[in-house]
Amino acid sequence: MSILRSSIIQTPYQWFHYYFLSEKPANVNIADLEFSTDMSKSINKLKHPWKINDIVHYSFLSSVILFVYIIFPASFIIKTFILSVFVSCFLIPLTGQFFIHALPIFCWLALFFTCGKIPHEWKPAISVKFLPAMETILYGDNLSNVLASVTTSILDVFAWLPYGIVHFSSPFIVAILIFIFGPPTSLRSFGFAFGYMNLLGVLTQIVFPAAPPWYKNLYGLQPANYSMSGSPGGLGRIDELLGVDMYTTAFSNSPVIFGAFPSLHSGCAVMDVLFLCWLFPKYKYVWWSYACWLWWSTMYLTHHYFIDLIGGALLAFVVFNYTKYNHLPIMSPNKFCRWSYSEIKLINIEELNPLNFNYNEFIYNDIELHEIPEEPVSFPSSSNSNLPLPNNYPYPYDSRSRQASKIFLNNQILEEEETSSFENSATTSVFDEVEQLTTINSNSSDDYRKKN
Asked: At the top level of its lineage, which domain of life is listed (predicted)?
């Protein structure tokens, strides 16, 4: 207990409480974590009615796990023990709140490391000529060879950083950022999208095995077979530069040697970027610059053709948008972190369907729900964003600062200018025209009554 009360523990907790937990509204627990270890809670949840999407989701992932269980070359006792521990982690609420939603990721990893154990006679023929031919047809040349025609130690290190370092650490960093700054349940959506994107990518690589650029540089266009060893490509120069076998052995014995299309390096990078743009749209150019950096490095290191990168990016884009419109909660621009939310809202696809959109009803409802303020609205600019909002300001600041999430409407209206822009405008507004027509109709009705 003395350790928990020490400054080493208390100082970070106080800091975390001040910046994050203090955002939590009273009597709201949607952002709280589950610390129970009672398996009966998880079992009772399984008794609830299942949706068709859930049945398809878990049936597909269960079939992948069953396939891995059968193919993996280990004794029945060892495989059963690993599977039982895995299931226990799902049933314990403390761990299940993370494991159950990371199931697509676990299935992808299990399938990927089992691919090398699939019998060769089960696998289709390896494509050697298709990707370089499509590269030439679509882009006029082999872009990977063009970029790798000049190599230096500086360029090698510059390409190694995103491909060999950042690629493996960025999903964890993005997950942490989503957990802290995204709405509750948004981390579940990231696990769903990231796992399914990689899982579908590995399945595509199994069904359509294709040789990467380094194969053409070593063997030309001669037929490939599954007994061949892989190659680290340009990463071999990093091993020579550092004097450490970091990639040569790993890539030579990779479970998926002929998995050029689609590029999962590109898919993972684009998926990370899409979620970062959803989370912090202000820095979207920074996030996309990372994706471009990784695309260049994959071709410079001769691991992928450009068409592979496009395939991985499209796969990530499709899976992300499916997740966005079916699972991902709506971001509130004036919420600072997950503890700032008092409710979770999802996108209603029916409302976005243009065929179901009633424009006239929307206009009339908008006019009825938003009363026109009697006094001109003072819109705060970026220069005075720290000032309190006026009473008649109908929209919140487009900011994710702690001040924006905790802002309270002040009773005092900001000092108005002597003459507003509306009063000086020479153009008659729509509301002025409506008022004039109403006055004309009223006068006409009075005249009519007098005549009769």
From this structure: Eukaryota
